[in-house]
UniProtKB/TrEMBL annotation:
This is Uncharacterized protein. Residues 1-25 form the signal peptide. Residues 327-338 have a biased composition (Low complexity). The lineage of its organism: Bacteria, Pseudomonadati, Pseudomonadota, Alphaproteobacteria, Sphingomonadales. Residues 316-326 have a biased composition (Acidic residues). It comes from the Bacteria. Residues 310-338 are annotated as: Disordered. Keywords: Signal.
Length: 338
């Protein structure tokens, strides 16, 4: 199992398990401080840094979450085990307190009956997922270029970043927007390169460009082959003379058939990406040499979880079919924020 499969299994585990013990907060031991590049006359490109660039015609909000590499995942698992041990120790004292309170209650039969604490087990205990502690929330403010376009540019630690969707995160907690939980990609971000993508919002474009009588009222009225969000190669960023154009690349991508909807957002899936994946009904068809998470690999991480997606590793020139679970409710979204 390669490193990417391992990171996928962790994400699947977080969404598949039904937790009866609250997730324990986990503070990342890794420095994750994305640097927003502001709009200045010159951009001092740094060969040692990795960059993510997002382009759209208007202000918007999107989220990319860093996936852990093997070293980071091993450290995160060590943290989980340490927090699990602490939770078990607290359970012993809470159980003793509960038994004392219950004995007192039985004598007087007054007030609410004490509730027993839930014993933490490998099947119901979790810590904050790595991805949530390494979330690059982009927009709507802080544009690198706002001259007839909205370009956002960030220096980030190199690695793989999963595109979570069009989401706005409230600094005081909570989020709104759309999660492409039913099909998305992780982009590869390397030092010395600017991983650049252009956002595509078909629903918003139809509202803006079609005659009133032809506009869809909701995303459900769009043509079947369309979804609300897509990723394309950049256009206008190519004319920004501050950027080293030979370092601006449409990044390598890996398809991911399912993501946790951590914030309870509206659900959709990413538009197909040429050469990376396409859909047939509810199935994601991965193109080229792609390895997807196997259910048995996910089971090795923990018990009492729902089966993750079955995977088929394809060879050069072949296609791998990954069956996706149907969403609980049809996705509805009003397009990008801003």
């Amino acid at each position: 199992m390669n490193a990417f499969s391992k990171t996928l299994s962790v994400a699947f585990l977080a969404t598949s398990m039904l937790f009866s013990v609250p997730a324990s907060a986990a503070k990342s031991p890794f420095e994750f401080k994305p640097e927003r590049i502001s709009d200045k006359p010159e951009f001092p490109f740094d060969e040692s840094k990795a960059y993510i660039l997002v382009e759209y015609d208007r202000m918007t909000n999107v989220s990319f979450m860093k996936l852990p590499n093997e070293e980071e995942q091993a450290i995160w698992e060590k943290m989980r085990l340490e927090e699990f041990a602490k939770a078990q120790k607290k359970y012993v004292s809470r159980k003793k307190r509960y038994e004392n309170d219950l004995a007192k209650w039985r004598k007087i039969r007054s007030g609410r009956k004490p509730e027993p604490p839930v014993e933490p087990t490998e099947g119901n205990f979790s810590i904050t997922p790595f991805e949530l502690e390494h979330n690059l929330a982009i927009g709507p403010q802080g544009r690198f270029n706002n001259d007839d376009v909205s370009i956002y540019l960030y220096a980030v630690p190199e690695g793989e970043y999963v595109f979570y969707g069009n989401a706005f995160f409230n600094p005081n907690g909570g989020a709104m927007g759309t999660c492409v939980c039913m099909g998305t990609v992780a982009i590869n971000v390397e030092a010395g390169q600017i991983a650049a993508v252009r956002l595509d919002y078909p629903f918003v474009d139809m509202l803006a460009n079609l005659p009133k009588e032809e506009r869809p009222k909701t995303p459900l009225e769009m043509p079947e082959e369309l979804t609300t969000t897509g990723l394309l190669p950049v256009e206008k960023a190519k004319s920004d003379q501050r950027l080293p154009q030979d370092r601006v690349v449409f990044p390598a991508m890996r398809p991911i058939s399912r993501l946790p909807n951590w914030f309870g957002l509206e659900v959709d899936r990413l538009m197909p990406v040429e050469g990376v994946f396409r859909y047939e009904g509810d199935s994601m068809i991965t193109l080229g040499e792609v390895e997807v998470l196997e259910a048995e690999e996910a089971k090795e991480i923990g018990d009492d979880m729902e089966a993750a997606d079955e995977a088929v590793a394809s060879t050069d020139g072949e296609e791998a079919v990954v069956e996706e679970p149907a969403p609980e409710a049809a996705p509805e979204t009003g397009g990008p924020a801003g």
